[in-house]
Amino acid sequence: MKKKIKNLKIRFLGGVGEIGKNMTALEYGDDIIIVDAGLTFPSMDMPGIDLVIPDTTFLAQNREKVRGIVLTHGHEDHIGALPYLLKEVNMPVYGTKLTLALAENKLREQGVKGVKLNCVKPSNKVKLGCFTVEFINVNHSIAGSCALAITTPVGVIVHSGDFKVDLTPINGNIVDITRFSEIGKKGVLLFMCESTNVEREGYSMSERVVGETLDKIFVSNQKRRLIIATFASNVYRIQQIINLAIKHKRKVAFLGRSMINVAETAKKIGEMTIPDGVVVDIDRVKNIQDKDLVILSTGSQGEPMSALTRLASDDVNQVRVNSNDTIVISASPIPGNEKSVYNVINNLYRKGAEVIYDDLNSIHVSGHACQEELKILHSLLKPKFFIPIHGEYRHLKKHCILAKELGMRESNMLICDIGDTVELTNKSMKRGESFQAGSKLVDGLTIDDASSLVRDRLHLAEDGILVAFSSISAESGEFIQEPSFILKGVVLSEEQLNDCKNIVYRTVSDFDVKDDTPELRHRLRKALKNYIYKKTKNTPMIVPVITKL
Predict the structure, then answer these.
(1) CB 542 within 8 A of CB 456
(2) pTM for the structure as a whole
(3) Which residue among 147, 391, 414, 478 has the highest number of C-beta atoms inside a 10 angstrom radius?
(4) What is the per-residue pLDDT for 216?
């Protein structure tokens, strides 16, 4: 009898068809490993939601198979969901020094204990069930970034993580081209590669370019106060700014909790060098002359509660923006954040500050590979199969076109979506069954797939709410007092309100009060909705409240 060949199953829980929320699971027999556990931030159509994380129901249902999670680097879109995942599935975690230090901060904040954190270095290998994972040094906008070469029973899979090819990196460790070449010569079954910058031609600029530009800004603003906003996790950028502050004899103050946490963490583990006496507490900046100070702030994406946004709204007691401030936004707006970022810039200008931002100056470089850098890895690895990851559909599609130009057969590529399973053997790649996946919404301490909650909030925001109160006798069904209404975000004339009262009277009178009250509420809601739409063309949320006495 012919032995049945086992498939390796690759399950996408996030990071395909979207930017952020990166998470992939590899399953073979009784073993599952996970690559990254990221989050994304809510869009404008998610009012009140704090975070969006992957739906990990599948992993919770198969927790006995999970052997561990490997982290490519320490950005939020790769480790932000880790505390929520580990509350459901306790497993060992593997990552580089800074990645684990940032992850440990998140676990502490969420009160997650008893997790085994295993620190690795580039070139290290870890054995997880039937999988062997090798960490390969790559360049990115955060220290400790790695690609992964995963040896499986069906062949070698390379996961790029987030990367760029920077020949003059700040830490001096260039991407390990030699190791990629060696792995490619031995044979790569599948390449899963990030697609964030696939639309950009050429090469990404080196991080050192930003340092050179910022140096010129320091020189041209010698008598002005500098406020620089960047990603808190961009340790290389922060280190360059600290070095420039020392060079130009300025003190540094951190503004924003995440900026303080990352700087303290990076310094503690040796990923950042900050000489004593350089950093001052934000509460002391009023005593420092403008020419002697640079403030490092969070909020480069215009987040509502971030430090820069609060600065633009005069909501930071220690600092008031004025005409002697030069504010540098050293980051590009993430797609979807443009409006928030430009609102902040406009408000800063209104306060008389000079604002320098990416559209006009080379004060930010991407941490993601452009087309020519992507071609380098494809050419070195020469994979049999290819799946583009980390991008919206258009990014994934264009990455497939790029791979095809390099000789990859179209039949050997797949564009996947969240909830897709890919079945892989050493000879074939095909789509498998779908599984439960998607998004969970974090709202305070509540975690749910509460799409109905978001719909209700949007409904309230767009059309308002009308609450209709009725007090009736449980015996006779007669009204004890006339109907009353609370309206929020709904405009009705006095005549229309009287019509609504009459609708309540009629609907209740036609109903046997001894029957089901939910049915009466349903009839009231429908009658009021039809009337209000007819008169106003609006559909407010209608909440009938019926009290039987």
Answers:
(1) no
(2) 0.82
(3) 147
(4) 94
